[in-house]
Structures are given as structure tokens and as C-alpha cells.
Amino acid sequence: MTVSIFSRFAALCGGTILAVSCGTQQTPVPQIRVIPKPVSIAEGEGVFKLKSGMTVSADSSLAPAARYLAEALEASSALQLEPAQSGKKGNIDLRLGLTNDNPEAYSLTVDENGIAIQGATPRGVLMGIATLRQLVPVDPKDSRIPYVSVTDAPRFDWRGAHLDVSRHFYTADQVKDFIDLMAIYKLNKFHWHLTDDQGWRIEIKQYPLLTEKGAWRKFDKNDRQCMRMAAEEDNPDLLIPQELTRIENGDTLYGGFYTQDEIREVVAYAAARGIDVIPELDMPGHLMGAQQGYPWITCNGESSWGESFSSPLCPGKDSALMFAKNVYSEVFSLFPYEYVHLGADEVEKTNWKACPDCQARIGKYGLKDENELQAWFVHDMERHFNANGKKLIGWDEIVDGGLSPTATITWWRDWAPKAVVTATAQGNKVIVCPDFLLYLDFAEQARDLKRIYDTEPTTYRADWNLTPQQKANIRGIQANTWCERIPSVRRMQYQILPRLLAHSEIAWVQPEAKDWEDFQRRFVAQADYFDRRGINYRVPDLTGFNDINVFVDTAVVEAKCILPNIRVRYTTDGSFPNAESPLYTGPITITESTKFIFRPFRPDGTAGAMQTAEYRKEDYSPAQALPEKKMEDGIRMVYREFKGRKCAEIGEAKVVRNYTLDSVGVPSGLEGWLGLVYEGYVEIPADGVYTFALTSNDGSMLYVDDERLIDNDGPHGDTRLTAQRALAGGWHKIRVEYFDMNNGGMLSLKWASPNETALRTLTGFKHW
């Protein structure tokens, strides 16, 4: 990226840029704050004032783009643009003709003559419009755009965002808002998860009961959990939207669906913004929504739950296969894009083992077992897709049965890396969307935004070892939002922002162009846009403290936020901070143990997530008296055969093997269900307060001198907790318990001495 010295100075200032002439300070020039980062951006001196009544000229093929631009600027900045007279250049000029092999390449120029956007194709012009939308100030009273020259093109052609509307339903207008957010940040593939166990959301005229019955449900366990969380977290965004409920025969039903006309409207709305829509109707599993009206599509004619997942469609029945094909035939006519997503993940096969029809199908085609029966179903559906001019995408489980040359996989199972290696080696395209990183419904941890930003999609797993040709088969990257615990639009926005911005940048820019510090500065400006537009987002975690903080005499309490417009309030009595709670204005000195609850508040008064910082006044924990027998290097690890959900139960499981390791972590080659216990001693060089950070996926516990310091127990994704302990110089015992529920195995223990500002891996263990 090329940036002028003036631009770099502006970035370092982090706010508005002051234009100074003849010693007189003038009105600040709006800053350049584009996400994702353009390939090349050079600022000039001066501004172009965009006003209502100005005109837009465009090639005839770009008339839809001109309409989209006018509608977007009127909605965001109350600017009303007019079409230019035939043959005349407008104040904003949209043109084709850019020479670039990338169809989404564009150039944008703002100078004294106006605004010019040129694209290699209409899609490129739309990408230029996305940049212009970010350059136009949000303040309707200020329509000045800095002079700038941008040349830009994306790295990946698949920059996706997925939304699950089955677990909780979002109206067509709300889906359009999601798509518009995608458009601003140049995400171009909308993966629309339309059906699942919890609801069928698309009208299929041949099977009307799919929506008459399958689109509505009584409150389920996730709905009730959302309502409990709303009270526990003092958060109305977790409440079930009452406008999506109805009373039927005395029961409260919750749900909704899209008519085929609404589907067409959404698809057209996306197309106008350069976004392709990929529908997913998940089969053969995750199909309880369909079974409410048509139970005969299962093996036993019942809608039920198996050992792990719901009863799937019966691939042994010709009638069930015809149902699936008829449904998809209607879907094909609604979605013009060439790809359709079959799903095909998490299929419960126990019914198939007991089903005469399925066993007959296995015998007829010489299949080995039910796993090959699933592969047969996928291939049968793919033939139907191809016969109707469509290409199949499926979750990475479809690799197990072999892939056709045209099939594409969305790789989500972080713990199944071989799927990517196999698919790319065969020449199939892969869309990377690992659940541990890019499932935006997972609770955001303090490190997650940077983890996403630092990700390189083609080397996400070190054990892939992909060749250059295999890397070329990584078509792109996608962020997924599953909505079991996301009942409202505001909660959905909170879950995806700002992580979606980091995702958009790694999907667009080349790896060498990424700049984390610069991204943070640009995000600060984007947060102002969200505040002014009423878009919810998660305020990044406050910093300056650990989960548990220890001091011996006095402590200075600090709570820092990267967003300058955030006000932080706090309590020390255990109550939830509200708008009347004390305002944090600077460091607080304490001399006694105190438990702080901090909460950020946005300019409109919206309360963010609460963070607890416990400060404990302690004496130094004495060093351990060790036996005289000689100790050996390393920490001892015991591997147990464990399939539980609590660290306390690991000790009851059968021992498989003992290890000696340099540090706390999962040994190479260990995978699946794990129960691991580590014990060793470390020598503390001097009295002081030491910081420990325990990160795991799933549960873990840290004990120092047999006293629990960090409780990171229970099933969860990558989660880091930090705590401090006052330790006297000498030897201290370290014990870590950890379990993994076949999720890939992730565990680390880091620490920092009193004089260190950065955490490092804890090593130097001894054991006997």
C-alpha cells in the first residue's frame, strides 16, 4: 500500500486531520478510514463537497449501480443525487474499462473535478462504491470527501459471510441490513442457512406444510436459555422478539418464514451490491423442521432425536429422495448463482442401520456401510444439482465419501485438517471457515480480533503443508454465524462486529499488506460510524487488569479502552454497573481486597459486556520444601482415557500413558477425547507477584501449590483466563488439569514475572 507522508501523519493522530493555512486552524478534514485496506491509496490536498442535487453519470450497464449508490447515500447521509443528463459527465462518474484481470478491481479518484469510479467489470464498480460509502462522512451536516486516489483489487474471490435464520428468524428487511453491512466491507458471498432442526424458513409451494408447521415452534431450550441470559446479564438484546410470536390453540409459537417473492427481493438486493447468495437447505441431517409436516421422509416415519443428532432423511426410500429433489428444484429457480449448499454435516446414522430400505440400498450399490450410504446420497443429489445447472457445496464431511471434480467444501471442523489436504490435492476448491476462529456466534475473547487479523487462510493449520497448487485451491474464507443464542438483530450485530471487519480485511488484502496497529486505528473510526447509524457492536475488552489480580501492599487499578468515545462505569458491591454508577476517570489506588465490575457505555447509552477484575491482598506464598531425592527435567503428564465434561472427573479415568514435556501443551499426535493431568515444580527467582495465563479448548484448571488459581473448566472454545499470585522465591508446585471433547486439542500455560510486560511459555520444570 502506498500512503503519503500526510496520510501517515493522519493515521498516527488517530482522529481528524487538521488542515492549517497561514497559521489559522481550519475545519478538520474527514479522515480516510477504509476497511478493508486498499492496495494503494494516496491522499491529496483539498476536499470535494458532495451536495444534494449533484448528478451521477454511468454506462448503461451500470444503471443499477448508480441507483444503488444514490439509495445508499440518501440512507446514510441524507444526500439526494440525480441522474446526469444524457451524454454529460456527472459529479460522480461510474465507468467500465479498467484494465485488470481481476473482475472486482476498481480505481477511485476524488479531486476538484468530482468523483470517478472505474471498474474492470460492474462488480469492480460496486467495490469502488463500497469504498466511496466509507469516505462520505456520517454526519449529514458534513459532506466533504478528501481528495484521494485509490487503486484496488481483492486477494480472494470468495469473501463470505454466513447467517443461520433457522435457530432464530430474521425478517427479509433484517437480512437485507445484514447484506448491506457485508457490501460496505466488500464481502461478496452470502451463505443463507435457511433450514435446520429448529425451523424451515423458505416457502416451497409443492410442500406447503414445510412452512405451515415447520416454520413455527414452541420455545425450546435455547430460547429459554436466551431469556435466562437476558436477566443474568442485564441485556434485553437476548430476549425473544415478541413480534415473531403468535398464539395458536393456547400455545405461544415462535418463528417465521420467507415467501418466494421475499426470497427474490433479497437475492436482487444482494446482486445490486455485488453479492451472490448461496442457499443452504441442510440434508440429509438437521431436518426436523421438515419432518414436522412430512415425517414420512425419515426411515421410521417419526421425527426424533438419535444418539447425537436428529433423525435424518431416509436415503433408502425413493419417495424421500424425490422429496429432496423436488424441494431443491424449486430452490434452483429462486437463486441464480451457480452454487447451492447441500449441508450434509453431522448426520445421525443409527436409524439407517436398522432400516430395511437403507440396507437394501447399501446392498444394491455394493456399499460398505452407512458412511458410504451418505456419500451415495451426496453424489445422487449432486447429479440432480448438475442436471439443473448448479454446482454443489457441502460441509467438509462430504470429503469422506469422495468428491466429484466440481464439488466445493466449506471446511469448518478445526479438528479435521485432513479434509483440506485431501480436497485440495484432488483439485477441489475449499472455503476456509474454521469453527474455533470464524464462528462468530462463539463468545468473543480478548485476543480474538487479533487472532482473526493475524490468520493466513492458506497456512491456518501448520500440519496442512500445502503445495503451491493446493494453496491455489483455497478459494477464499468465510465467517459463520450460528444463531442458537442470538435471538435479535442487535445481539447478532454485537456478535459479529468488529470481528467481521478483521475477517473482511484478511479476505481482501495480501498477507504482506496487513498492519494490526493501522487496522485498530481504522476500526476506531468505523465504531463512530456504527454509533451514528445505530448499529450495535461489541466494545473491545477493557485492558489494564487480569481476571484475578494480586498485591501485597497497595494496587493501582486501571481500565483502558481503545475507543475514545466510550465511558466506563464500575461497581465494587457486586451489582451490575448502570448509567448512575461511578464513572471511571483515571487510575484508582486501593489498599484492601476489592472486586470491581467494569462496564463500557457507548455514546447513546448502550451498555456493553461487563468485566470482572478481582483484586486480592495477599502475603507471599512460601516456597515448597522438596524431598532430597534428585528431580528430573520437565513436567510429568498423565494421559487418561476420558470422555467427560469436568476436570474433577479426569482422575477416575483409566491411565493410557505417561509423558515428560518441556511445557504444558498437548503432545503431537494426541487427538480425540483427552484427559490430561500435568504436575511439576518451577523455581521462582525472587519474591514477587507473578501473572499466569491458561488458555484451552475445552476445559482446564490451574493449581499453584495445590491451591486453585484459574478455573477454566467446562466445554468451550479457545478461552484464556489470567490470574496473579504472590510467590516467595524458591520452588513451587504447578498442576494443570485439562480435557478435550474431540475438538482438536488446544492448551497452553504462560506466565510473566513482576518486571515483564509480555507473557511467555512457562518452562524450566522439574519433577520426580
TrEMBL record:
Please state every residue range assigned to the domain named PA14: 630-765
E.C. no = 3.2.1.52
Give the record's keywords alphabetically.
Glycosidase, Hydrolase
A single MF term (Gene Ontology): beta-N-acetylhexosaminidase activity
What are the BP-aspect GO terms?
Answer: carbohydrate metabolic process; glycosaminoglycan metabolic process
Q: Where are the transmembrane segments?
A: none
Entry's InterPro entries?
Beta_hexosaminidase_sua/sub, GH, GH29D-like_dom, Glyco_hydro_20_cat, Hex-like_dom2, HEX_bac_N, PA14/GLEYA, PA14_dom
Q: Which PROSITE patterns match?
A: PA14
* Catalytic activity, reaction form: Hydrolysis of terminal non-reducing N-acetyl-D-hexosamine residues in N-acetyl-beta-D-hexosaminides
Which major enzyme category is it? Answer: hydrolase
Q: Listed GO cellular component terms? A: membrane
Annotated active site: E346 (proton donor)
- Give the similarity note: Belongs to the glycosyl hydrolase 20 family.
Stated name of the protein = beta-N-acetylhexosaminidase
Which taxonomic lineage is given here? Bacteria, Pseudomonadati, Bacteroidota, Bacteroidia, Bacteroidales
In the UniProt record, the gene name given for this protein reads exo I_4
